[in-house]
Every structure is written in C-alpha cells, then in structure tokens.
UniProtKB/TrEMBL annotation, chain A:
It comes from the Bacteria. InterPro entries: 2Fe-2S-bd_N (IPR042204), 2Fe-2S_ferredoxin-like_sf (IPR036010). It comes from Parachitinimonas caeni. It holds the Pfam family Fer2_4. This is 2Fe-2S iron-sulfur cluster-binding protein. Keywords: Oxidoreductase.
TrEMBL record, chain B:
Keywords: Oxidoreductase. InterPro entries: BFD-like_2Fe2S-bd_dom_sf, FAD/NAD-bd_sf, FAD/NAD-binding_dom, Metab_Enz_Cyan_OpOx_G3PDH, Opine_Oxase_asu/HCN_bsu. SUPFAM superfamilies: FAD/NAD(P)-binding domain. It comes from Parachitinimonas caeni. GO terms for molecular function: oxidoreductase activity. This is FAD/NAD(P)-binding oxidoreductase. Gene3D superfamilies: BFD-like [2Fe-2S]-binding domain, FAD/NAD(P)-binding domain. PANTHER family: ANAEROBIC GLYCEROL-3-PHOSPHATE DEHYDROGENASE SUBUNIT B. The keyword Oxidoreductase applies. Residues 7-289 form the FAD/NAD(P)-binding domain. Its EC number is 1.-.-.-. It is an enzyme of class 1 (oxidoreductase).
C-alpha cells in the first residue's frame, strides 16, 4: 500500500494513497455548526450535504469527501 | 472562462453514463463525460476499473472532480472544478447523474460518527479505516445489506442491521426476487456472507447518543427499546433521484423521477435521462437504460427500441423496491422539537413545525438556504411535513462567485 503524508491542523498524518480527505479525517469533527458550538463531521459521504467542508491548501469550503489526498496536502478544520 | 464544445455531454460517470459513453465512442461520436467524483464509476464502483476500457479514447473528454453547477442557456452547461469554471456547449445531453440517499432527522443524528448508510460505505470505499470498529447499520432497503458487506470486508464488526420495514414486507420482496434471477443470486450470496450479522426487521434508530461523538444507539423494535454501544452508525432510508439539474433544464418530473419515454427521451428535445434518475432500480436498470439512450443518440432507433423491451422487468423491480420498503409512519415522527432538521443553518424541528410550507420555512427560518441548498432538509421536510417540491433552487450546485460572475443569467448565489 502506498502511503502519503499530509497535515491536518498542522499535525502530520500518514494515510493510504487514493484516500479521500474525509476518509483521512476519520470521523474527527471538521467544523462547528452555525451559531453554535456543536462539532460536525462528514455525513453523506457523497458530496451532497456539505458537512465535511474544510480548507485544503488555502482554499476554503472544499468538500473533504470529494477530494483525494495528495503528498504534502495541508488540511485545516474549524473544529 | 474556458469554453468547451462537444457532440454528446453526459452528466454522471456511473453505470448509466458509462454504458452510454461506450456506445457513442464506439460509433465515433465525441463525448464529454462529467462527474463530481474524483474518478469514474458512480456510487457503486467509485473508481476501481470503471471506465478503464474507454480511458484515453481520442474522442473522449473525461472531466472528473467537476460538477455541473447550472444550465445558463439552451445547449449549454456551466461547469466548475478546482481549476475554475468552464462553459460546455453540446448538441445532445444525457442526464445520468444518479441518486442520493434519503437521510432523515432523529435525535443525535448530527453527532460525528453518524453517517448515511451508503455514505459510510462510500467513505470506506474511499479509504476510511474501520478495522475492528463496531458499526450499526440502519434504515431501509437493500443498500443496507450492500453496506454491511463492504464494512465487513473492510474489517469492521457489524453488530446490528436494522430494517424499518416489517418482516412480512421484506419476505414478500424476497419471495418476488425469482423474477430477477441475478438479484436473487446476489441476495442469497449476501445472506450467506452476512449470516453472522443480526438483521432485525421492524426496527429503527430512535436516537444516537453521545456528547461530542457517537457513543451508543437507541433502537426501537416493536414496543421494545434497546441501547447498543458502537463507533459508527450508518443510517439511510433508500435513495432519491438528483432532480435539480433535470428541473433546471425544464425536463418534466413526476412522482420524484424524471419522465422519459420508452427510449429514454425526456420532455426536452435532445435531452435524455438514464439510471436512478428515472426511478430507483439498481445497477442493471441503470446500465440497460444507458445503453438504450446511447443507441438512440447514435441514431440506432430500432436497436434502442428492441433493447427497451427488457426495461419493463427492471421497472417492475423498481416498483417492488418502492412498495416493499415504503416508510412506516414512525420514521417521520422521530425528530423532537430541538432536533436539527436543516444541518447547514441549524434549523430545529420545533421552528419548522410552526410553518405551513417550504416557502414559509425558508423565509422565516433560513431552512434550505445553506450550501446543500435543501438537498437534505428539502427531502426531510417532504417526509416530515408533506411539503411538496421542497428543496433546490438555482444554481444546481453552489458555485463560487467568480464562476457565476461570468454568467449573469444564473440568478441566486447565497
Ligand atoms: C451511496 C450509495 C452506495 C451504493 N452502493 C451500492 C452497492 O454497494 N451495490 C449495489 O448494487 N448498488 C449500490 N448503490 C446503488 C447503485 O449505485 C446504483 O444502482 C447505480 O450506481 C446507479 O447508477 P447511475 O449511473 O444511475 O448513477 P450513479 O452511480 O449514482 O452515478 C451518478 C454520478 O453522477 C454524479 N453527479 C451527480 N450530480 C452531478 C453534477 N451536478 N455534476 C457532476 N456530476 C454529478 C455523481 O457524482 C455520480 O458519480 C449505491 C447507491 C448509493 C447512492
Ligand atoms: S460528507 Fe456530505 S458533502 Fe462530504
């Protein structure tokens, strides 16, 4: 299995190549709900619900479930 | 903005879209195949070897990780990807953009660790590590079994499968399966491979429990309630066609599916539809319809008509699915006043219950106004309150402002 090194909130993580960013997040919360402090994480897994939004290499509001990891990718979560 | 042109545009590289693309390419017709996912294959194959036979075909333009966000003018689609926006003009259009899950609110469903049923399967197929994790799979329909199998194969421990439909209903469905021998074989194999997994009928999730993450699930079976500790809860109540694009194009829809004639023509000239979009019936129906549409598009009318005769049995399968896995009334009554219904805008059931229509709900509560554009809460409100046509508004998908800036004709952006 080819492994890839990425950073999630600055922390180095090793994941299988061809994983989606949502799979790499492994259920950890990636954002807080509107006007509240409830943590949220990927839900639909297929690009529909927008719960998995993260910042990827500086681009905000990316759906983690629809993006594959790349070597050196930096992911920022709001939660 | 980049300008692209093609003879045949196909939205969705799942079984239906791929089947049509193959026929058109073999005929020598230029095809542009667009999919939101990073690889072709649709919901069932998710990458893998799907479409490998076509890869590199000189007449194929494959645009993955690209979504159709609007249909700004006749014979024109607006696309968006990480590289920016483009405009695609086409002569013919095949809509093969499939279905999503019906995801319904219940207390605790926003906790991390709770996902859709096909949703968790999709996450696992895209690399989520579930080895040794305890999983409960619940909701309705055969997708629960497919999900259980994928999870098991990935090393998870599926501690409970819960189907809301009654034993009588599921048994009737199973008894009918001999009409579709391929499906019967598949069901028997699934049954064999899942024999260690407890499969309860007439059972649904009452609540997901935990503080910042899922810890346990409360299940209701008949009059009895039980609590089970687990790491993941995957819940889905069947599939719903993605109608937004078809509607934006002005294609007629009926009972939640795109209306097509026997050879997959929609009510709009030069626009065809195939797969889950025309009725939830599984991969065989999707591939067959893709082929029928492909044949018609390359001008092989007689062959398309001949093939279309086989479609009837898959339409009967689709009808059987809908009938035997229809939702029990309790499923629409799971939310309590403080249960979030609209996840994007955090609108709770109690506030929505005071509204009389989807329109009123949007105006007063912002329900459906977030980035998912009512894809989840619209369907939920249809089930919970009976509001018709709840859900989408243009653009088809939320687009970045700069994408729309090149396109004054696509109205709303919020
Ligand atoms: C989550 C999930 C898991 C499933 N798992 C199984 C399984 O294990 N076994 C099984 O037998 N059946 C499974 N099914 C059912 C099976 O996927 C379908 O029967 C079959 O894939 C339908 O094929 P299709 O071509 O109609 O659509 P799909 O396979 O749904 O393909 C549609 C494609 O269109 C794309 N799309 C949608 N909107 C846009 C847009 N605006 N822009 C660009 N692209 C877009 C989607 O990304 C998707 O790839 C599953 C369904 C779902 C929803
Ligand atoms: S998990 Fe729903 S959009 Fe990514």
């Amino acid at each position: 299995m080819t492994l890839i090194h990425i950073k999630i909130n600055g922390e180095s993580v090793t994941v299988a190549a061809h994983s989606s960013v949502a799979a790499a997040l492994a259920g950890r919360p990636n954002r807080l709900s509107v006007g509240e402090t409830a943590p949220r994480a990927a839900f639909c897994g297929m690009g529909v619900c927008f719960e998995c939004r993260v910042t990827i290499d500086g681009q905000s509001q990316q759906r983690a479930c629809q993006v594959l990891v790349r070597e050196g990718m930096e992911i920022l979560c709001d939660a | 903005m980049r300008e692209l042109a093609t003879e045949l545009a196909i939205v969705g590289a799942g079984p239906a879209g791929l089947a049509a693309a193959e026929i058109a390419l073999r005929h020598g017709m230029p095809v542009c195949l667009i999919d939101d996912n990073p690889a072709p294959g649709g919901q069932i194959w998710r990458g893998g070897q799907a479409g490998a036979a076509m890869a590199g075909h000189p007449k194929l333009r494959l645009l993955t990780a690209t979504r159709v966000v609007a249909a700004p003018a006749p014979n024109c689609l607006l696309l968006e990807s990480a590289d920016g926006a483009s405009q695609l003009s086409y002569h013919r259009l095949l809509l093969a953009n499939g279905a999503r899950e019906r995801l319904l609110p219940f207390p605790g469903w926003t906790l991390p660790g709770v996902t859709g049923a096909g949703g968790l399967q999709a996450l696992v197929k895209s690399g989520l590590d579930v080895r040794g994790k305890k999983v409960i799979i619940a909701g309705s329909g055969p997708l629960l079994l497919a999900t259980a199998l994928s999870l098991k194969a990935a090393g998870a421990q599926v501690i409970q499968l819960a189907e809301q439909a009654s034993l009588a209903s599921v048994s009737r469905f199973a008894l009918h399966l001999w009409h579709w021998p391929g499906k019967l074989t598949q069901a028997l194999m699934l049954g064999w491979q899942l024999q260690q997994v407890p499969y309860a009928m007439n059972t649904h999730v009452r609540a997901a429990l935990g503080n910042d993450r899922l810890q346990a699930v409360r299940l209701r079976r008949g009059d009895e309630e039980i609590e089970l500790a687990c790491d993941w809860l995957a819940v889905g109540y069947g599939l719903l066609p993605n109608l937004e694009l078809a509607r934006a194009l002005g294609c007629k829809t009926h009972h939640g599916v795109v209306e097509v004639d026997h050879v997959m023509r929609t009510s709009r000239r030069d626009v065809f539809a195939a797969g889950e979009l025309t009725g939830i019936g599984g991969v065989d129906k999707a591939q067959l319809e893709g082929r029928i549409a492909g044949l018609l598009i390359i001008g092989e009318y007689d062959r398309a008509v001949a093939l279309a005769k086989r479609r009837r049995r898959w339409l009967r399968f689709a009808a059987a699915l809908e009938q035997h896995f229809s939702l029990q009334p309790a499923i629409a009554q799971l939310a309590s006043a403080d249960t979030v219904v609209c996840r994007c805008e955090d609108v709770r059931f109690g506030r929505l219950a005071k509204c009389g229509s989807w329109r009123e709900a949007k105006l007063h509560t912002r329900c459906g106004m977030g980035p998912c554009q009512g894809r989840l809460c619209g369907a939920a409100c249809e089930t919970l309150f009976g509001w018709q046509n709840a859900g989408s508004r243009p653009p088809v998908f939320p687009a970045r402002l700069d994408t729309l800036a090149g396109n004054p004709s696509t109205a709303e952006v919020t």
